[in-house]
Amino acid sequence: MPTARISHLIPDGRRLAVAGTRQVLLHEGMPGDEVRYAVVPGRGRTPRGELEEVLNPSADRRTPPCPFSANCGGCDLDALTEEAQREARTELVARATERSWDQRPMLFPVAPFSAYRARITLHLDGGQVGYRAPRSHDLVPVDVCRIARPEIQDAHRKLVDFIARHGHEGLSDVELRSDGARVIYAFVSDGSVPRALREALGELGDVALDGRTHTGDPTLTLDVLGLSLRASPRAFYQVHLEANLALVGLVVAAVQEARPQRIVDLYAGIGNLTLPLARDGGAPVVAVEREGQATEDLRHNAEQAGLTDQVSVVTRPVERWDPSREPFDVVVLDPPRIGAKGVVDKLVLQRPRRIVYVACHVSSALRDLQPALAQGYFVRRVQLVDLFPDTHHVETVLVVDRGDQR
Ligand SMILES: C[S@@+](CC[C@H](N)C(=O)[O-])C[C@H]1O[C@@H](n2cnc3c(N)ncnc32)[C@H](O)[C@@H]1O
User: I want to staple 405 with a disulfide (CB 3.0 to 4.6 A). Which of 85, 351, 370, 401 is the partner?
Assistant: First the structure.
């Protein structure tokens, strides 16, 4: 069986292992490991392999701090020291962006580095609570998740006990959501939850069922740099509350620096970027978001902050929003992992001076930005906020300027 040394990660989290001119992509192993692997048939430019054995482990390895680590796979870098993980995430983005930017991105780590997640989605299957195994539908039972915030860990234990007593007929998933103080349970059902179980759910406290209030008050209030942001049960918010503040700070600074007349914030959610931009960015903001519950929150949040004159909200998929109808000179976009295919093509027709792309998947961002780069825009800088410790994921802020802004 062939052997190779794992060099680095690629943006989808796979590991590139190298032996001379031979390269192979693996799902497991850590940068620096010498490994033995089996070749797996498949298409694609780089051959794929399955890790058989770590022959000589990387000096940066540690014992994974989680007992579920081997099967769960959610924390795919937890076998590395914190420092080596940060290096691996930075290297991943540096290599992905090297053709567009010749410097090494700056990474901003923000404590806490474990017990940080303010939202986790647990699956309910066969009477058990857990995560899905990597590349599989199999449930890995997990009764505590060490990257979740302490209050989420408490809520998780309460849930495991609840399911043991009541079962979960008709319920498939639950998101535990914290604003740093309160935790709510947001269940997803197939519509067939028996009445006794529906009534019992109230024992858990603040519960939403299929996006609607079931018991108590399942809306949260997030504090973002002095702004109070309501988040309804279906609305997105960033998973690391503390690192989010660093992210917002970087985006606001990048926008301020461009001295905008009018800002567009695409994929705006509940206004996590919109409202700090409206308050501190120096210009009014048009926010576009497709989820009705999130835009209701955004409007409410703007009102609470006294910023309604500074913010206009469009509830629409970005693909169906026409940029030629809004004059703007700076645009922020923060799409989901799949990116914003085709959106930048339309934006550059309006010749904004600056595009600030916030990406949780750097490959999608680089693909989406190609039309701008082809028209003379250039990458001014790339910054990273360490929003997802113990995993290969990292939040990337790409600041892209029109060619005449050099
Ligand atoms: C990564 S979140 C960013 C939200 C916000 N900027 C923040 O910092 O919290 C992406 C948001 O885009 C929204 N979204 C996803 N696809 C969309 C689309 N095609 N058009 C508009 N909004 C979309 C989601 O509902 C979600 O609120």
Answer: 401
